[in-house]
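Blinded run. Sample ID left blank on purpose so nobody reads anything into the name before looking at the predicted structure. Input follows.
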Amino acid sequence: MRVVIQRVSEAKVVVDEVTTGSIKTGLLILVGIEEEDDENDVDWLVKKTNQLRIFNDDEGKMNLSVQDINGSFLVISQFTLFASTKKGNRPSFIRSAKPEKAEALYELFKKTMAEESGKPVESGIFGADMKVFLVNDGPVTIVIDTKNKE
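Blinded prediction complete.
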């Protein structure tokens, strides 16, 4: 499981000209799921994301978590995070989980994030053509992969 986390001052997702999720200060989380992922990946990633200290403290140092600043979450499914560009110029998505499995883990990710954080989780619609708007604060963008825990 792989996420791209962006620290935002605001973000929203629109499907068919309707806003399905919107936040102010917090984290925009793009979630990619591969075939071998399971509930353990979800649990580890949710804990790591909730505790990630990427917001500035009073001295301007990245020392605060989204919990510390009472921030929000916007979660978007993104199968293209597992694109392979090894051969040719057209990406292959063979590593991405099949939609049934990916949707179940995506929904579990949102549910677990809400439970762990004690906050509602805004989101897009799985499999929809979405338009994502954001103001990346910093910019700060972090990539975390459960198969490569650096």
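Unblinding after everyone has recorded impressions. Strands lie at 2-15, 18-23, 26-32, 55-56, 62-64, 72-77, 121-123, 130-145.
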